[in-house]
Amino acid sequence: MGTLGYEEMTFLTKTDLGWMREAWGEPPIHTTANLKYHDVWDRYENILIEEDQSRWQELSQLLRHEHVSLAQSVGLMGNCLPT
Predict the structure, then answer these.
(1) DSSP assigned state of 24
(2) How many CB atoms lie within 10 A of CB 66?
(3) Are 36 and 4 in contact (CB under 8 A)?
């Protein structure tokens, strides 16, 4: 597989592309980090997904706790709260 190519970096301006060509020349093949290093990409993507799920669980537990605390403070404890 070829080197990483700037054609896949849509955030670069025409000026940026010109400077890159001048500094390093034209790469033989334009590819993305995802394609070139797919195994590493997948590994870190899975780590980020797990971290995100963990944060959502923590937030859900916090909100559930705050909901119960609020209901207790105003005397609304009953069957309206999720378990």
Answers:
(1) H
(2) 10
(3) yes
> For 62-77, what is each residue's pLDDT tens digit?
888 777 676 666 665 5
Largest separation between any pair of C-alpha atoms in the chain? 72
Residue 15 pairs with which residues in a beta bridge?
none
Contacts of residue 80, defined as CB under 8 A and 6 or more positions apart, other chains included, come to: 71
Counted residue by residue, the chain has a size of: 83
pLDDT at residue 9, as a whole number:
82
Read off the tokens for 2: 């070829």
| Cα(9)–Cα(13) distance, integer angstroms | 9
Q: Which residues contact 24 (CB under 8 A, 6 or more apart)?
A: none
